[in-house]
Amino acid sequence: KIAVLVVTTKGAQRACEFEVVNKLFYPFTLSATFLKKNVNQTPAEAEKIIDDVINLSIKYNKEPVIYYSWGFGDPYGDPWSIELMINSIEKMASKGLRYFPLSDIAGEVSPKLINKVFTELINHFPAFDFGFHLHSLPADRIPKTEAAYNAGVRMFDSVIGGLGGCPMTGKELVANMDTGVLLDFFESKGVVTGVKRECVKVRRGTWL
């Protein structure tokens, strides 16, 4: 399925006009500081955009996905706790959402903390699905993926070739999860994904 990241109502509207697009992603966060840095919005403005994304998704038969940047803590000194995460997820659930990916933006969170946060959230919301949107150094990708998997997460984001990341972190080596690496991990667990390897190969110097 094809997902598009949107941060404005206009962007969501444009994405909805493409039939091949299945999902609309909006990068929410409990951190008001990062919300301003990342999408130049206040929490109130972000909530309005989220409502618009949900309404447009319903109108155009798309799936809205609100994922949590800095889902495992906050580096800016803004309030963060698992209790605050639970409260926010409950609010999102009241809007009809049932799937919540969490993101480790800077690649600084330990596998132990990843496992702890997911375990507590999954235990608190057994009827909801949780996903993992990982940015990481190459050496940390498998341990962190394993930590989320062992907590019960079964939905993982990835990017072909691991391209991209978050420019707000200032860490060029911290990249998105490579689809090939993720497929290797699933194969080691005996998980059949149905993804064709030849469809996710990318050559150096190739633009997608």
What does this structure look like?
The protein is α/β, with parallel strands linked by helices and 208 residues long. It has one domain: TIM Barrel. 39% of the residues lie in helices and 18% in strands. Strands 4, 5, 6 and 7 form a four-stranded mixed β-sheet that branches. Strands 1-2-3 form a three-stranded parallel β-sheet. It is globular, with a radius of gyration of 17 Å. Residues 203-208 have low confidence and may be disordered.
Summarize the structure.
The protein is 39% helix and 18% strand.
Could you list some keywords that capture this structure?
disordered C terminus, 3-stranded parallel β-sheet, 7 helices, globular, 18% strand, 208 residues, 4-stranded mixed β-sheet, alpha/beta, TIM Barrel
Query: Structural class of the secondary structure composition?
Result: alpha/beta
Uncertain ranges? 203-208
CATH architecture: Alpha-Beta Barrel
Question: What is the total number of structural domains?
Answer: 1
At CATH level 3, the topology is TIM Barrel
Largest sheet: 4 strands, mixed
Mind telling me the C-alpha Rg? 17 Å
